[in-house]
Amino acid sequence: xxxxMTFNGLELWKASGGFANEPHxxxxxxxxxxxxxxxxxxxxxxxxxxxxxxxxIIAHPRTEHFFEIGSDAAVIVIKFRNLPRGLADRGxxxxxxxxxxxxxxxxxxxxxxxxxxxxxxLEDEPDPLLIQETELSVEQYLERILSGPEHSHIxxxxxxxxxxxxxxxxxxxxxxxxxxxxxxxxxLGIDPHxxxxxxxxxxxxxxxxxxxxMAAVAHQSRYHFMRSFKMLTGSTPYQYLLNLRVEEAVxxxxxxxxxxxxxxFALGFSHVSQFYRAxxxxxxxxxxxxxxxx
Length: 294
Prior knowledge:
With 294 residues, this protein is of the alpha+beta class.
């Protein structure tokens, strides 16, 4: 079985239950092969690697490779065109040697992350902000595992603080809902730049947003901004934005006669089905069920 997702400069896929491909190379793609269950027999540049779950290897552009797995095995493959920004900033030395067998990764962690990334691929037309958050998550994971063990433990803790959350990766519900902060300047102790980010989101949450713009308002790098926002609100920017839209939908359903379709598009959802899923995850009922209960 194959499961494939494509983003900007990224390809993610998972194979399980027996799989083999033919010798091939990619002109301008790196490929990281990560066995998460069982054994993977991988041949690269005529050298054979028997990879157990938890040990991965990287293929550089124009490196011939192929692999096969048995019926009880599974592997996640990440292909990317450009080195993660942190590695590029430090220089390519650490990534221009293969991931050796002794350089391990956590199969449970990548499996959990992949499930979250997969949700993005299931969306009818994913929100650009959700795509950006997914790409950043993949990029940070790659940077960490390709940086070697001297960076992995600290960066793993930092990554967990940013990207952990609901299994769906989209919305938080119940006691895990984002902490909506006021936008009137009354949030004591909050960095003034982050306060302006909140004001920006609350004033324009029905329109498309992007991480780079929010990070610029915060005067932070993208990674620092994501970490700061999660610590401040308990959610990612996309989760925060989506919950704001749902709360506004509640107000509209309660106080107006607008149809569900009208409310959906007015709040910036690209599909009514996307609105239905978001609303039901937060409120436990569909928009129509909510309105009928009033």
